[in-house]
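Try this one yourself first.
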């Protein structure tokens, strides 16, 4: 018979000499029902040609052809016959041979760079024999010629024969190495060298598991049809193929490099390179590919039924159950790379029934599977199998049906696809699109746009993440984080990503919510009347690290609705931009606590409205700019740090109180801070510790109470620090001794704290002490020599003196030794801090003590020493309040200010109207939503 070529497929078809049909028969690699060729039998071929292979046409007869153990032989066949177990037959010249037989012994044929030629068959290896083919010199060839219709085979094994190929080239028109079906324990090891044949290695097996084994760890198989193949007929099979290295190539565009149709057979591939029209086609048995193997199908994509051979081309790996309906198990893992028009292609070309196809199982847990035609194809196609991909990377998206239930695709901006658990995909995703009933995840919204051009309406962008779980809206994230979690923004958000509902703003509606919203440097942009709404009691909320912009003409920023008590909100490192009020709480609420820290707040009306029955607004290191800055009608307000509140509106003096009703009017006064009385059921406390307060046209701090108002609640305004640019605060609000004064421009500023020696006793840095009394000086006496230009106690400073020289000073006093002077360094620390902030640092001052000795009493103390003013022990008296520039206590009053350092008058009469009823015509009216 001749070789039969089937369109889009190949089959093994064998022909042999007519007389050889006995027990070692091997049918073609095909299905059982196909025509069976005559058998292969392990016999010596007769009448082998003796023609020389010498390219120069020289006869080799009578010359030395080979050597064994130092003995030379005229023919290679003689040398082979003489070789004993373990010996090497070394070819010495180009020669010919008849079919050799290796039986029961292990020998090595070293081609030694020579060419050996045989007709139709080179070797039979039988009965446990082993032939090792090597080529120590390189360039050697064992060539089989096809003569007549006889099938050409290179090396055939039977009855536990084995072949090891280490070097040289085995060149055969049809079959390179062939293990027959009588061969229990047949073994082939390809470690090096080159096989050139239509069928590189063919292993039949005897139909029992593990009856033959082929290992490829190196070398190259260059095949015209199959590089390695088994036989799919019933009664054959049980072949184990293992490849860890080497190269197998089929040059036919319609044939696989590896063809695997056999019963009970396995193929395990962890390395090497396999290339063919299809890389591997499996039609029965088990296939496992992993490691760093490279598998490619380079032919055009086709899949056609074939009852006697292969069916597919263009696939990296093709899975196509044969008509034998045998189970198939395919596993792809590790770092294997599989490439083809379709990298992995599963089909049912024989139209087998569903019961048979259910035996086809595929598992993909890793590897890189790529199509070489990404615009026209996908990396995986499966006609029958579903839910089998749990890992790996791909250069196209996959059909959703092939993904396991808990697996998903994550696609980057370059289109590279990774399959992983859905949880991991979500963790790495910025967007998703629903496809084939599954979500396809994308690393960024841009990646989703790239993969879905013209379908942006289908793209859902992940808005936030909570503890590794992602959500499409901020509202969903807040619900997931309500018990103390953090919602982290993944990108800038618009209204639809804040909430999918009609209320497109941040809305806290569940009592007891405790959550943090971390904008992570992103911005939220809204066009809604609300921005952050708290409509439930007992809420703790932090919003930080980003920007919130609401462009709606009626937009509020933060607002707590009635009647919801016990609310704590912290806004940190946040930019808030609204049209109407930026920060506000409901006046009917109690225990409302809001902290603004390192924020930047702008709006077009009143920035902050604070009217609660109780609670504290803390403003620290925050910039606020609006027509009116902060309006206070209840609760406590603390302002400190590097805060800057700027009012840009017209100056307006209220005539009446705002009553809190939605229809009422709240006057925009143009003040940086405006405190309004009127609610007689709640205290008001304003504590300004620092910051800058600027009003372009009005007061920096303004308090309004109607004349004759009688109330039992407190109205406490205390200013202990800060800079006031514009109309200064009333003197009665200034805490005495804190060092505030008017500068040359009429602005109230804080005086830099300085150490000031007691001018009564320290002159030009020197204190003179008369030793005549012999009285020692104490550390307290030294401290009494120094004061400050601010109230030491109220400003939080403590004066310290380095008393290291005190003992030496008192020793000199006792000895009435006036020859030396003694230096004492003074420092000031604030609130116990050893390292002070820039604005609090105080320069040290040194006072030198100079000793004198008078022989006559001076000042009437009877001992000849100079009397110290104000006491009877020598040192100077302490200033009355520790402030060298302060007035005496009996002249001070609550509303007075200390004299300035240069003798200028205080500002007790500063132009701040308290309790006036100036006209309010033209004032800006601000509507409140609810009463209070």
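Now uncover the answer:
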């Amino acid at each position: 018979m001749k070789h039969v070529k089937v369109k889009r497929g190949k089959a093994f078809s064998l022909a042999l000499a007519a007389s050889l049909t006995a027990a070692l028969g091997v049918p073609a690699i095909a299905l059982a029902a196909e025509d069976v060729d005559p058998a292969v039998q392990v016999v010596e071929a007769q009448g082998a040609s003796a023609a020389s292979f010498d390219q120069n046409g020289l006869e080799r007869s009578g010359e030395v052809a080979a050597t064994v153990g130092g003995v030379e032989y005229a023919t290679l066949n003689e040398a082979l016959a003489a070789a004993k177990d373990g010996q090497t037959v070394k070819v010495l010249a180009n020669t010919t041979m008849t079919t050799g037989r290796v039986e029961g012994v292990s020998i090595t044929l070293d081609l030694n760079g020579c060419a050996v030629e045989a007709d139709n068959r080179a070797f039979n290896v039988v009965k446990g024999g082993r032939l090792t083919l090597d080529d120590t010199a390189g360039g050697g060839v064992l060539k089989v010629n096809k003569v007549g219709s006889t099938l050409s085979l290179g090396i055939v094994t039977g009855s536990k024969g084995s072949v090891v190929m280490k070097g040289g080239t085995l060149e055969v028109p049809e079959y390179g190495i062939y293990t027959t079906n009588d061969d229990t324990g047949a073994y082939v090891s390809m470690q090096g060298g080159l096989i050139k044949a239509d069928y590189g290695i063919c292993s039949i097996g005897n139909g029992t598991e593990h009856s033959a084994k082929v290992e490829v760890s190196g070398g190259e198989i260059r095949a015209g049809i199959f590089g390695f193949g088994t036989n799919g007929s019933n009664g054959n099979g049980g072949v184990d193929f293992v490849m860890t290295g080497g190269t197998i190539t089929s040059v036919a565009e319609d044939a696989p490099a590896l063809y695997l149709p056999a019963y009970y057979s396995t193929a395990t591939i962890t390395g090497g390179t396999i290339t063919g029209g299809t890389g591997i086609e499996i039609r029965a048995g088990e296939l496992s590919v992993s490691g760093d193997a490279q598998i490619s199908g380079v032919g055009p994509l086709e899949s056609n039924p074939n009852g006697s051979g292969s069916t597919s081309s263009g696939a990296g790996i093709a899975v196509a159950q044969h008509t034998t309906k045998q189970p198939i198990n395919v596993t792809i893992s590790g770092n294997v790379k599989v490439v083809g028009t379709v990298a992995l292609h599963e089909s049912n070309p024989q139209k087998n029934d569903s019961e048979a196809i259910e035996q086809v199982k595929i598992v993909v847990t890793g590897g890189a599977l790529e199509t070489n035609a990404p615009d026209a194809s996908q990396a995986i196609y499966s006609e029958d199998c579903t839910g089998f991909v749990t890992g790996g990377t791909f250069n196209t998206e996959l059909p959703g049906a092939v993904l396991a239930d808990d697996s998903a695709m994550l696609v980057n901006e370059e289109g590279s696809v990774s399959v992983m658990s859905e949880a991991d995909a979500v963790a790495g995703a910025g967007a998703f699109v629903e496809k084939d009933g599954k979500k396809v995840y994308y690393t960024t919204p841009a990646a989703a746009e790239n993969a879905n051009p013209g379908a942006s309406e289908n793209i859902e962008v992940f808005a936030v993440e909570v503890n590794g779980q992602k959500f499409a809206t901020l509202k969903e994230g807040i619900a997931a984080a309500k018990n103390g979690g953090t919602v982290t923004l993944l990108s800038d958000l618009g209204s639809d990503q804040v909430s999918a509902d009609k209320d497109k703003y941040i809305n806290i509606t569940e009592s007891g919510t405790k959550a943090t919203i971390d904008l992570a440097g992103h911005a939220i942009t809204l066009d809604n009347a609300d921005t952050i709404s708290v409509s439930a009691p007992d809420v703790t909320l932090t919003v930080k690290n980003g920007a919130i912009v609401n462009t709606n003409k009626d937009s509020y920023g933060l607002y707590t609705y009635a009647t919801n008590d016990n609310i704590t909100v912290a806004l940190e490192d946040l930019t808030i931009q609204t049209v109407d009020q930026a920060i506000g709480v409901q006046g009917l609420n109690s225990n409302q606590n809001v902290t603004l820290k390192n924020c930047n707040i702008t709006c077009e009306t009143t920035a902050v409205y604070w009217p609660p029955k109780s609670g504290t607004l803390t403003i620290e290191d925050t910039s606020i700019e609006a027509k009116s800055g902060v309006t206070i009608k209840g609760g406590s307000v603390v302002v400190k740090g590097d805060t800057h509140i700027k009012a840009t509106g017209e100056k307006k003096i209220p005539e009446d109180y705002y009553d809190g009703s939605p229809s009422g009017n709240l006057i925009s006064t143009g003040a940086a801070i405006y405190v309004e009385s009127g609610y007689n059921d709640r205290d008001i406390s304003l504590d300004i510790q620092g910051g800058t307060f600027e009003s372009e046209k009005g007061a920096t701090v303004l308090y309004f109470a109607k004349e004759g108002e009688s109330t039992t609640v407190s109205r406490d305004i205390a200013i202990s620090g800060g800079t006031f640019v514009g109309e200064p605060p009333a003197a009665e609000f200034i805490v005495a001794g804190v060092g505030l004064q008017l500068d040359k421009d009429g602005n109230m500023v804080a005086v830099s704290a300085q150490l000031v020696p007691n001018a009564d006793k320290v002159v030009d840095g020197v204190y003179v002490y008369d030793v005549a009394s012999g009285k020692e000086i104490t550390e307290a006496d030294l401290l009494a020599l120094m004061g400050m230009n601010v109230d030491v106690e109220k400003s939080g400073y403590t004066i310290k003196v380095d008393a290291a020289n005190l003992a030496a000073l008192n020793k000199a006093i006792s000895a009435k030794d006036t020859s030396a002077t003694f230096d004492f360094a003074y420092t000031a620390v604030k609130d116990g801090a050893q390292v002070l902030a820039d604005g609090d640092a105080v320069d040290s001052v040194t006072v030198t003590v100079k000793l004198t000795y008078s022989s006559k009493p001076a000042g009437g103390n009877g001992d000849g020493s100079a009397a110290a003013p104000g006491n009877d022990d020598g040192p100077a008296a302490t200033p009355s309040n520790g402030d060298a520039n302060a007035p005496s206590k009996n002249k001070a009053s609550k509303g007075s200010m200390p004299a300035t350092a240069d003798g200028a008058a205080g500002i007790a009469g500063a132009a701040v109207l308290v309790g006036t009823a100036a006209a309010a015509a033209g004032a800006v009216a601000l509507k409140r939503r609810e009463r209070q």
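Discussion: The first strand starts at residue 5 and ends at 6. The two ends are 105 Å apart (CA to CA).
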